[in-house]
Queue: 2 jobs
Job 1
Amino acid sequence: MKTSKKLVFLRFSSLGDVAITIPLIRCFLSKYPDISITFVTKNFYVPLLQEFKNLEILELDSKGRHKGLKGLLNLYSEIKELNPIGIVDLHGSLRTNILRFLFFFSSIRYKKIYKGRIEKKLLTRKSNKVLVPLIHVTHRYGEVLRKIGFPVDLSDHEYPLKFILPKKFNNSFFNSKLKWIGIAPFAKHVGKIYPLDLTQKVISFLQKENQVFLLGSDGDEEKKLQVWEKAYSNVHSLAGKYSFSDQLKIISNLDIMVSMDSANGHIATNYDIPVITIWGVTHPYAGFSPWNQTNERSILSDRSLYPLIPTSVYGNICPKGYENCMRTIPPEKIIETVRKTMSQTSS
């Protein structure tokens, strides 16, 4: 039976930010089964949310019917027609602020995320940094639900069962009894990418006794991953070969994920996969580390040599001379952390 009460969640982008909503949605739908969710986001992100039966997607068509101010008016009308009991704004962007203004004149409750911009500015400024851990974005999302009247306790979170790989995954490496290690070596900004020559050393060592699955986007990243795939017998690139939905199934069956400060770390942690993250000009203190992971799994660049870290929250600011900050992380440290983590989680 379809529920009559509905909340609308807004989180348009990016992939990692949408992935971070997953634990919150699990807890919400478990606690409030009589309330459904309509999630407004881009079509590409839909596979992240397919596990939820009581959740519908309102696709954000930012290049079509939702483009510009007229498009926002269309989106406002579409949301209003759903007759929701509230709007949960997890984005806090210019576009959602305009929506918030429009809904001000309706009877529909609207609550938005507090991003903590002042604290983040203190954390990332060049001088007199206030280097303290900020609230994790998952809890910032949870605070929006509390303000709109539906608090959840993230300690009640339960992970779903791992995906059963379809029969089409019949390649020999999928049937291997070796441990599966996912490595996602890329990020949106260069200041968050571990040097590829050092990444190759990590891959070369780990693939000797494990199956290594490489994750990246189509195009240039795909071509770079193919080089490593051809060079090593136990290395397999997923880029360009498997849909995003299929990649999620593979990720859910990994034994461990090695990721930059990027979306793949957030995706893997949603499936209870141990995630090791490698940090360049960004820092876990900003509140964007993979949720529910131990601090020991975050490998940081040397701040004694690069004291401006974190230079920004998202890694889009890389001061001159900071391009090589991640070279202060030796490949051996990553390998050691992988082996230690695998030992701890398999015991």
Job 2
Amino acid sequence: MILDDVHRGITKRKKRKRLGRGVGSGHGKTCGRGHKGAGSRRGHSSRLGFAGGQMPLFRVVAKRGFNNKAFADVVLGINVGLLDERFESGDTVNLETLTAKGLAKGRFDLVKILGDGDLTKKLTVQAHRFSRGAEEKIRAAGGSTEKLG
């Protein structure tokens, strides 16, 4: 095996297909579109999942059950240990402060405080949900919890 052969012919940028440049180019006359039909016309594009007249796969495969994912609430879970790292004693933890500290990113509907880690600081935590362990740890550290509607 010659090492030079491994990378021969591989280029970073593929050259564009030059259409309509004569019969000798291989892309002359019909420019790779064939003769007649919708595919030869300007602006033609096939529908997503179209299988050329064959029964599309998504219609062949059996559909069973129900999935509620589209309607389910997206919950952002934050551990108590992370609050201990990022917040000072006496701070209020809510959606705005979590976003400011970079803990709440993306789209979500509810914030849930989870009990992983240790909490040594007195915090006022405002969230939609609390795990039992998280609520106990916040109260044990001298803080308070407020449930949002």
